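Hey L., structure's done. Input below.
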Amino acid sequence: MKIQKLKYIEQIFMTIMAILTLVACQKEYTETKETDTTTTIKDNDNIADLIAKIALKDGSYDNIIDKCSEINIQYPYTIKIDDEHIKVNSSEDVKNIKLNHFANRDQIEINYPITISRSDYTETTITNAEELQKIQEQYNTNLTDDDIECIDFIYPIEINTYNKKYHKTKRVIAKSDYDMHKIFKNIKDLVIEMDYPITVETQDKKRINIKSNTQLENKIEEEIDTNKDENDNAELNDHDYPHKEVITNKEWKILLYLEKTNQTAIFDTYIFNYKEDNTLEIQSETETVIGKWEMSIHENHKLINIEIATDKTPLTKLNGSWEIKNTNPVIMKMESCSDSQGKRTKIILQSKDN
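Output:
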């Protein structure tokens, strides 16, 4: 009996040793994996800072109402413009206010109380205009706005984390910027591994497949360099009119084409669709022609640059840079650069439905 008991104890001891060895191997593997900088992200890495800034909540899209890029107002709420009460239930409503009431932006009155969200997703209730003004003064003095808006993550994204302090691993699925913010807001004790490939979307709506930390970091910095202006100005002026939102919001026809003489009739059959991905689709009764367009700023002038993939007139007449002179939700006036005699070609676009 004693011999059997000793054998039994020996078996238990060997089992325990095997388990301890396995755990030690797992720990050694985890810590070895931690040092692989090609796949992991740590607190002091530049890419960690870039990801955290992409995940911040953008507060600039409703600046026409709250005049502060650090915050946005939570739906629903109500504003008043020239005795007209307007309910704001979505970002589409904010967009329509920008398009239809931009000229009266300084007359916008907010009905209080409202709830605001900051870039870090914290919420505050504001009960009057004086409280909002204090927040505006706090952030608008030096235009504090760290969020990166020119590139977005396409979710879901699977992420592995390793806590160096507690030696724990965790697999999480980020389904939104809010989820990503929770992961990256404080990663002092974490080592993070993104589950590549992931997809990002650029400001011109192009989706790109990303396969590594290096590729992701390079792409983010490339987009930051390309898109210097993220429309974060809190005090809007006429230069900030949302021309891009106007032109991509509907289809257009040419109301006037004046090149020395009135040649509008040659464009009568064409409908122009300026898409958010910067492609230009032109339809006539017989064909569809594809081109490219983009907006730029040169010496404080807003330009629209057009490149149509055809050698046929009259569409070739539209190629080149056009200065935007005046815009409203149904009309856009443009002029070409001066010719050798100082004369400019003029175009007036009109919404197809007006």
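DSSP finds eight helices and 22 strands in the chain. The helical segments are 2-34, 46-55, 63-66, 91-101, 129-140, 177-184, 213-226, 243-247.

-- N.
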